[in-house]
Amino acid sequence: MSATIFFGLRDTLASVTLSQDGRRVEQIAAFDYAVESLEELRAEGARLGLVLDTAPAESSDVLAALQASGLLANFNPELIVFGSMGSPRVFELAAELSGAYLAANHRLLFTSVDAVERKFAIEAGFEAVPHPILALPALAHPASFRYLRFRVPPTEGHAEWRAALRKERLVPFHVTKEEVYAISDSHVAARLDDLGFWVDRLGAPDEPLSHDLYLLRDDLQMESGFLQPDGNSVSVFLRRSAADRVLCSLSGGLLVSIPAGRSPDSFHFHGARHGHNLKLLPSWTLLDVHAPELSLRGGPTFFAESTLAWRLASPLLAAVVTLDETEKAKLTGSITRELIAGFVDRYSGRSAPTAGGRLIQSRNVDHPDNHFAVDVAADDLIRIGAGRLTVRRPTLAIGGRPFENIEAVLPAQGLDGIVIISAHLDSTGNNDPSYRGHSATAPAPGADDDASGMAGVIGAALAILALVEALPAKPRREIRFLLFNGEEEGFHGSVRYADDQRQQSAPIVGLFQMDMIGYDAKPGRIFEVHGGSSISADLQERSLRLAEIVKACVPLVSSGLTPPQVYPGDDHSDPAEQRSDHYSFHLRNYAACVISEDFFPGPGLAPSPDPNPNYHTPLDISINDLFAADIARAVAAALWFAATR
Ligand SMILES: [Zn+2]
Predict the structure, then answer these.
(1) Residues near ligand 1 ion, CB 5 Å cutoff
(2) Using only C-alpha atoms, what is the Rg of the chain?
(3) 274 CA → ligand 1 middle, Å
(4) Is the pLDDT score of 407 beyond 80?
(5) CA-CA-CA-CA dihedral for 385, 390, 391, 396, to nearest 10
(6) DSSP state of 238
(7) Which of 100, 155, 250, 299 has a CA-to-CA distance to 514 between 20 and 30 Å?
């Protein structure tokens, strides 16, 4: 039998990074499984093609980057098709092009991790495959693709089971201490039955081909506790005749499969807090590093990696947090309330980015101004960097549509390791039931969530560059300033970025994420730093150290603030675990913390929190700039300390 197999590129075979102005492809970096997967298919006699969206770059530019990535030679040059991935048209064209080879029994396949791309390919007559490593079995013995949950009988030790799963052709999308959720075919499910795993087939056969998965977290249920009848499932999923969308419930929420391209916003959970919708993207690196039993699994690679993480972090763990007078003066002089207010207004539609120009109405991914906001924030970092920062735009796809994160890098001088300060650049108004993200009449200003964090990242860039200028000692570790897209859609941008960093074994020592640092109504000027992770004690210890560095910086540069509430507290849990972009890094064994206003209850018996009543509504239009500047300055100080000591 002969076959032609087309592939999507972005997120499926490689990461794609654009130039600082977003007009050129700067780099295509093949994923570690990509070349091997393509070569084994060619060895089986399959012809390989590529379906590519060029926008905004020229096709010659894309081809040159593909050549440099080592991927290009695997494809038949006549089967490289350019066009928008947001309609069936490009797939119809691909099917036509492959027609020259069609013979009796010829099979036409399309492989992509993006469910919307697959949906359009199926409409154009393709068989769809949800991941490159599943293409070879799909070619050899067609079988339905399933959502699968693997558990280990409680009588068995955990020593070998992750290694056994690692040998199978399956793509994990969610991993907990006891369970692995993955996509694979019915053959793999049957083999794992035979090995003694407890295997649940979730949803319908081939449902993974046309659906996206979300973990919709039910804060109401979690707060009321076990055997209390509070939760959202009855009201949301029965009332809306949507019961078939729920695959199962697990700790913290409901696993829900949603038709490709539809937003989970229509399933609105009462009592939900930020980060409540987690999009579960298939990610090869999850099974590699999510290993709580460090001594039992992973072999030499994991040991080496864990040791490296500790070696890089160890000076930080020991050092006493101090700053000299010049350092304090530069941080205080750079990050002012006026600066923070100016950038928040600029990003949240209160003032025009260019004199007399238009306002950013919304940074939501469904709104055209998301791209405008990326251009504005990227230009701000380019201008501030004045040649000292390398600005690039790592891309991601959401529902077949291209989006961009923003990355600005200050190179290292003498020490290994990377430290990151970040925020998310997108916004939403979905707490308002009438909100429609794409509508021009539905603004999503997101001043607190998270223009406040964006302004904090900009302030940090200004402060760090001022420090570099003033001091003989340069930051010895690489510093990255990052703005993530698609956080409100389930951490899309940070998942793609962190996955890519993990594949390259990037030595990230720590990430400081600021998410909502601008609301403060109650007295006390209280804020929070979260370092909790239930993934492993090792990871939590490194993350908590980052939180403690922020805390230690408060009296040095922001003495008007109360020392922050540091989580996890005495009850060992952290309500913000999994609630912002830092979680994408935790899942890949990178230390990370999130800094926010007094949003969450606790820790312990702390007074009740001070949540922003305008959270995720069109009313999120202003912040307390003095409060946000004080927090941003303490975080920038922690970043500087982590980069220099
Ligand atoms: Zn947020």
Answers:
(1) 449-450, 515
(2) 24
(3) 6
(4) yes
(5) -150
(6) I
(7) 250
